[in-house]
Write a structure and sequence with these properties.
Helix content: 25-40%
CATH class of the largest domain: Mainly Beta
Number of helices: 19
Number of strands: 35
Distance between the termini: 45 Å
Number of domains: 3
Radius of gyration: 33 Å
Largest sheet: 8 strands, antiparallel
Strand order of the largest sheet: 6-5-2-3-4-8-7-15
Shape: globular
Strand content: 25-35%
CATH topology of the largest domain: Thrombin, subunit H
Structural class: alpha+beta
Length: 740
Amino acid sequence: MRLNLALTAAAVLAFLGTVEAEDSTKPNEPLAVTQLIEQIRPSVVTIRVNGRDGGELAMGTGFVIDREGLIVTNLHVIPEGRSFSIETPDGRDLKVVSIESTDRAGDLAIIRVQTPTPPLAALPLAEEPIAQGTSVLAFGNPLGLRDSVVTGIVSALREVEGREMIQLAMPTQPGNSGGPLVDRSGRVRGIINMKSAVDDNLGFAIPIGELAAVQSRPNPVAYDRWVTLGTIDSSSWATLFGATWQQRGGIISARGLGAGFGGRALCLSKQEPPPLPMEVAVDVRFDDESGAAGLAFHCDGRDRHYGFYPSNGRLRLSCFKGPSIYSWQVLEEVESEHYLPGRWNRLRVRIEKDRLRCYVNEHLVIESQDRQLTSGQLGLAKFRNTSPDFKAFRIGADLAAESIPEKLNELMEQVVGAPWPTEAATSRVVRELGQRSDAVTRELEKRAIELEQRAKQIRRVAVDVKLAPIIDQLSELAEAPSQDDAALLRGALLIAKLDNPDIDVDAYLTRVESMSQAILGRLAEDADPVSRRQALHQYLFDENGYHGGRAEYYHRANSHLDRVIDDREGLPITLSILYMELARRIGMEVHGVGLPGHFVVRHVFGERHQFVDVFDRGALLSDDEADEIVRTYAGRLTTEADFREQTATQIWTRVLNNLIGVASRESDLEAIHRYCEALVAIQPDSAQSRMLRSQARALTKRTTAAIEDLDWLIERTPPGFDPVQVMQLRDNLIERNDRE
């Protein structure tokens, strides 16, 4: 496991042992790092949270703000319903008296401990706001490594989800949460709160000024009471396979990964199942639709049970016959328009002697005659690391919700169909619809989702219309590239225009022409090829600093020729396009060579040639060095095809494939679709491009267009494509289109 830049206190002391200590008696004066660590460390405590089995569930950090026994940490470090212990750096266990004050929105908690002997050393708190660029240290227990210190600076003061946070240019990890962020004079400037999801070397802290409001509103809860807050009612429920199950105000929540395979965890009702036929129902809501959670039934109290639950937005009925995936059987999985992503969804299972009927929001979605399990407990199940909420769990003979009366249906249609629904929903109408509040609310949310999806599709059409002229221009250019002297350059700019339709292609053509004129202006009319190449290199690399984009190699801008020209960095192929266009304009014969994994150019003069690596600031490559590139990237000997001159279409195709790779890493399906449209435009007879575009169209819900590509493949039956498989794909798409 990588430990980033976090160093233990001992390592920091050893590393900085030669730093001369300064007089610490002067207030707010910078201290040497060694002196600072020695001063802060006694006031930083380790907080260990216990799991249900008594083992350690998590570790966090806190720090002392009052010598009489007040300790600050993040609220998420001490979850309700979990016991925890506090330990000082010298190994003393502190007795927790109460949780003195909490702020759930601000994620802050103040803990009171019994005053030890000798008393605790409190850290001074800064009063003024911290400034960007301030040098700071963070103390904590990252990844369970106790007494660790990491240095950095305040990179920004940034609003995160409506709260001002201190952005830190330093790595933070689980275990740092709740630790103090101190300046070089030893004053606390913030409370470490979270690490960045974008970069390992970024973290965030809560400004220390936020603590004053929490201190001014004490709401003490005795420790013994705290560890029972929100716990599941053990007289009504039994939990299996870990996770944290809590119950508040009728809502049961499940947090954390279950100990069962796939993160499975169960919460089983102790209510005796009634005789068949019977029903079990619950409302469930997800924090993340990629998760899975719902009803469990016919459970033997261990590994065997059925489950009916949403998973990745689809509804699934499974039979679990053991502890591992090899004993699990997905009986049926379906999509349903009646499932509402991100909302409360009512799941109901009717269990009869010879069949199982599964409903979502009172619509039958799965019916099964599976009889592998026939009796057992009923309850709730969660999988993976999702954090679902459950409410309205019921067991009974008939739990079907009342349908919406025809009169209310008509009233609801009037509201939905009105130009301004909020105007149509008068107080009288709202009260009438409230007679079937749950059912009407679900139906209205369903209509809202349908309208949102429709709006999303309309926006997609708008984008497609905007891109259509660009795709057509690429197609025309690929049909006869020789008719345009700047075809290669123009095509590369049109590809960039797919992501930024506002690019002025002609302006960049003019700019490249101006660049070439600047180079020609320093050349004699009879300059030889080598002199011309040297002038080009001096202009591009020495004077204007064009270089390979190594730091952010996979950034999309490296494949956009406009950005390559503006930012002076790019991929081997885009830098080579610019190089070839300038070379042609100053009288050089230069061709693109698409070596596996690394694009280069070949300067031809007379009977001789010279390979140039434009990515490496114009490094000259021998033939042997070019061979080595092939061996390095392809793992084989070179062939004649490796050194063949690339056509404009082949170069554009390679640029588009690079962009598809970037978009795939970013899971940007709409971008993949754009690039696939361009691929087919420049090589309309490519079966592989047609298949790729068909998949992109299908994934972005352009089903009819996807079927058109499959029809093209079926009609032509190109080599390498199984017509039976293509027909099956086509049938699946038609079936999905009919369902939707």
